[in-house]
């Protein structure tokens, strides 16, 4: 076990040395991830870990990979994607250009799930998806768009439950034990490094998806990120969070309208103009 003080000292040292700020991550989650890294890499003490990470950039790169990667799959939580199709895309269709930010895109499964929805609704050609993550290796996997073939059965089931209109196999090519996503799903995607803990807004979006990421942050960082998303949304833009996340403790809670409470889809309100 590592103490709270030891954990904060390690995360502060990482921030000062590399600029990666994990100090506002939820403590219990951060501690579990650090301890998991120590077990799998046979590191015996927090002191040994600190020395390794601060003197060996390769070890630190591996640490970031294991510390930040999130479990994901295509069309995870199918009812969410069904709601997105039915309640959000019809509004996005009114824009000449649709800009979407998938924050914390991990290895890309959510990116391609969203691209498939847009394609089936005839919106992909005039959409730009900005897919960002702090984890460079996960981001490279997302760019490659190559996944294990043995996962496709579960992904196909998710797709069908999400109201898929075609055969899921239309969207990938099987090669040996891998499945490569169709090139058409990549054409309008921009992959980029972005750290939600410290980086600022970089565009205006009609839809932001950040699902199952905020659960790893403490309340202070969650609030910062929600404010970042609010500032990044266009008038009446949509925000989608994960099933265990909400706006409940955010100071922007009253600035959003519930579109689907169960699926955590919200729409930005517009403040009335003040009279002069």
Automatic annotation (TrEMBL):
<dbReference type="InterPro" id="IPR000780">
    <property type="entry name" value="CheR_MeTrfase"/>
</dbReference>
<dbReference type="InterPro" id="IPR029063">
    <property type="entry name" value="SAM-dependent_MTases_sf"/>
</dbReference>
<dbReference type="Pfam" id="PF03705">
    <property type="entry name" value="CheR_N"/>
</dbReference>
<dbReference type="GO" id="GO:0008757">
    <property type="term" value="F:S-adenosylmethionine-dependent methyltransferase activity"/>
</dbReference>
<dbReference type="InterPro" id="IPR022641">
    <property type="entry name" value="CheR_N"/>
</dbReference>
<dbReference type="InterPro" id="IPR050903">
    <property type="entry name" value="Bact_Chemotaxis_MeTrfase"/>
</dbReference>
<protein>
    <submittedName>
        <fullName>Protein-glutamate O-methyltransferase CheR</fullName>
    </submittedName>
</protein>
<dbReference type="Pfam" id="PF01739">
    <property type="entry name" value="CheR"/>
</dbReference>
<dbReference type="InterPro" id="IPR022642">
    <property type="entry name" value="CheR_C"/>
</dbReference>
<feature type="domain" description="CheR-type methyltransferase">
    <location>
        <begin position="1"/>
        <end position="269"/>
    </location>
</feature>
């Amino acid at each position: 076990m590592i103490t709270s003080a030891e954990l904060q000292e390690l995360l502060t040292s990482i921030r000062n040395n590399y600029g990666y700020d994990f100090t506002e991550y939820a403590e219990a989650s951060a501690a579990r991830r650090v301890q998991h890294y120590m077990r799998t890499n046979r590191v015996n003490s927090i002191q040994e870990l600190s020395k390794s990470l601060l003197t060996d950039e390769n070890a630190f790169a591996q640490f970031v990979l294991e510390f930040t990667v999130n479990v994901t799959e295509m069309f995870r939580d199918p009812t969410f994607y069904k709601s997105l199709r039915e309640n959000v895309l019809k509004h996005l269709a009114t824009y000449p250009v649709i800009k979407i930010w998938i924050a914390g895109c991990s290895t890309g499964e959510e990116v391609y799930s969203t691209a498939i929805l847009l394609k089936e609704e005839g919106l992909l050609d005039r959409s730009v998806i900005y897919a960002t993550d702090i984890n460079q290796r996960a981001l490279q996997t997302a760019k490659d768009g190559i996944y294990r073939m043995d996962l496709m059965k579960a992904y196909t089931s998710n797709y069908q439950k999400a109201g898929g209109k075609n055969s899921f196999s239309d969207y990938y090519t099987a090669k040996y034990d891998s499945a490569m996503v169709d090139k058409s799903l990549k054409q309008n995607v921009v992959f980029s490094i972005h750290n939600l803990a410290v980086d600022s807004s970089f565009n205006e979006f009609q839809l932001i998806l950040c699902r199952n990421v905020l659960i790893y942050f403490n309340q202070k960082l969650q609030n910062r990120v929600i404010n970042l998303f609010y500032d990044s949304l266009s008038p009446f833009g949509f925000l989608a969070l994960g099933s265990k996340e909400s706006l409940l403790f955010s100071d922007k809670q009253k600035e959003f309208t519930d579109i689907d409470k169960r699926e955590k889809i919200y729409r930005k309100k517009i403040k009335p103009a003040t009279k002069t």
